[in-house]
Design brief:
Elements (H helix, E strand, L loop, with lengths): L14 H17 L7 H9 L11 E9 L6 E3 L6 E3 L8 H10 L4 E4 L7 H19 L4 E8 L7 E5 L5 H12 L14 H12 L6 E4 L17 H10 L4 E7 L26 H4 L4 H6 L6 E4 L20 E7 L3 H10 L2 E5 L3 E10 L2 E4 L3 E4 L7 E9 L14 E8 L16 E6 L5 E3 L2 E8 L6 E8 L19 E4 L2 E5 L1
Parallel strand pairs: 1-4, 4-5, 7-8, 8-9, 14-22
Antiparallel strand pairs: 1-10, 2-3, 5-6, 6-7, 10-11, 11-21, 12-13, 12-15, 15-19, 16-17, 16-20, 18-19, 20-21, 20-22
Length: 498
């Protein structure tokens, strides 16, 4: 290993037919068994189900919110309007992606095709009907509607639309009004941070709120902390405007199969990923920690960014083949979005583990990922941390039986908003403990680690990562086999001292 994202009157499919397809897909999905079902899976789900009424039926459900289909195509701009040609960038039908997602253990997925001049009409008139058919054909996988949004002044972002009757119209409105590449002729006025803020304000005011998550945030960075299209200032400004809409970035970008064909992981050709993770996430005390240290609810995910499989000339794995975003949710569109919005999420590569729980407790109070534990400064302020993970029972998609070699507990202080919008470090963040196999104990199918944070005097957050490697910190990636360099990361649990 080296060291170093209003329907048009000319829509090709009627509103009545769209509703018919959408209703059929939702009905079949609700009645169908989960991917990988059967007695063993049912028992596995049951023992991880939270018993409270608000979360009953929630288990860890793996998915992928960044997958491309043949509708990531090209445009002939010599015609007016431009002529769309399928398959110019990604090649697989929407239903093929859903079938492969099911095969690799995903229960939810999202179609995120590239935009372009007048692409909003392509999405509405061509791609959306195919998505509805795919929902009927593969009901075991919840298939979200959205796109890889051409974010003004930024790199691509997931724009995830809530599942409802008018989802196609909602995406059409946002894409046609705000996607920087949708206008024809090109409109430079769309490619400004002010337009991005306008977009987020419009999304925030919608009755059904979408989600926005940045893609491959440091792919255009030229060095460590030398950012490109996406900057700390833009993340802060967007999150300030719409904190329940603009909620995070990809911790692990797609295109992870690059080294198998001699290319950089993630397509990060100027400055590499570290252990397959973006520098904004992988660097302890880096930008992610800086945002968390301000008290922001800013989450990480992991995706495939699937265009073309690496065995067919691309640099990608199938959805779920290598990277997974696990959400604690019911098999329900709204609850999965709620989990993503509120940080009930952990991510992993290579199926190193299949379940991860992180809790913080004090006396009779407890909080999990995305939640806040409130403790009183007048009482005992020790905070007990419990990490519970489940290793893979069997082989992953590469035929390997990966093993966890180490788990790290990372803690950072929450000190409030930074006066410097460009700040990308949190000097309070540290790896407070490292655990090896001798430090965890078996509990059924899980392994459990317990640790106590003594004399907690101020607000903090805790997060966890683990690896199959012997690297103390994830090294900058070269052309190593990605299957030999596996990591998992939790989202944080917060502690508030009052």
């Amino acid at each position: 290993m080296d060291k170093g994202f209003d329907g048009s009157e000319g829509a090709a499919i009627s509103r009545r037919r769209l509703v018919k397809y959408a209703g059929a897909g939702a009905t079949l999905a609700a009645a169908s068994p989960l991917v990988g079902g059967g007695p063993a899976a049912a028992a596995d789900d049951a023992e991880r189900t939270n018993g409270s009424s608000s979360s009953r039926g929630r288990v860890w459900r793996a998915g992928d919110h960044h997958v491309h289909s043949e509708y990531s195509g090209t445009f002939d701009t010599t015609t007016n309007p431009p002529t769309f040609q399928k398959g110019g960038d990604a090649v697989y039908p929407i239903v093929t992606n859903a079938i492969m997602a099911k095969h690799f253990g995903l229960t939810w997925v999202m179609c995120t095709d590239h935009g372009g001049p007048t692409h909003s009409k392509v999405n509405l008139e061509q791609a959306y009907p195919d998505l509805l058919r795919s929902r009927v054909l593969v009901p075991e996988v919840l298939q979200f509607w959205g796109m890889e949004f051409d974010a003004p002044a930024l790199d691509h972002h997931t724009l995830m639309i809530p599942h409802h009757r008018d989802e196609a119209q909602q995406l059409f409105e946002l894409e046609s009004r705000f996607a920087k590449r949708d206008a024809f002729p090109n409109d430079p006025g769309r490619d400004t941070e002010a337009k991005m803020i306008e977009f987020l304000k419009a999304a925030k005011d919608m009755r059904r709120k979408p989600l926005v998550i940045a893609h491959h945030a440091s792919r255009s960075a030229t060095g460590l902390g030398v950012y490109g299209q996406d900057t700390p200032r833009e993340f802060r400004n967007g999150n300030n405007v719409a904190p329940d809409i603009y909620v995070g970035f990809e911790g692990a970008p797609g295109h992870q199969a690059g080294p198998l064909i001699g290319e950089a992981r993630g397509g990060y050709g100027s400055y590499p990923t570290h252990g397959g993770f973006d520098q904004m996430t992988a660097r302890v005390g880096g930008l992610w920690d800086a945002l968390l240290g301000e008290g922001r609810r800013w989450w990480i995910t992991a995706t495939s960014d699937s265009h073309v499989h690496w065995t067919r000339g691309g640099s990608d794995f199938w959805p779920g083949e290598y990277s997974k975003t696990h959400v604690l949710a019911r098999q329900d569109y709204a609850d999965i979005m709620d989990g993503l919005r509120n940080g009930r999420v952990w991510v992993g590569t290579g199926d190193l583990i299949t379940s991860l729980d992180l809790t913080a407790s004090n006396q009779d109070r407890e909080a999990a990922m995305g939640e806040t534990l409130t403790v009183s400064a007048r009482n005992r302020t020790d905070v007990d941390i419990e990490i519970k993970f489940r290793p893979l029972d069997g082989k992953n998609a590469n035929g390997d039986r990966p093993e966890v070699t180490r788990v790290d507990l990372i803690v950072g202080g929450i000190t409030g908003p930074s006066a410097d919008l460009d700040a990308d470090t949190n000097p309070t963040t540290k790896v407070v403990a490292r655990f090896g196999p001798r430090d965890w104990r078996k509990q059924g199918k899980d392994y459990v680690i317990r640790y106590t944070l003594r004399n907690v005097e101020g607000d903090l957050y805790a997060r966890v990562r683990g690896t199959s490697t012997d690297e103390i910190e994830p090294l900058a990636d070269g052309l190593e086999n990605p299957w030999d360099d596996l990591w998992f990361y939790s989202n944080p649990v917060f502690v508030h001292v009052r």
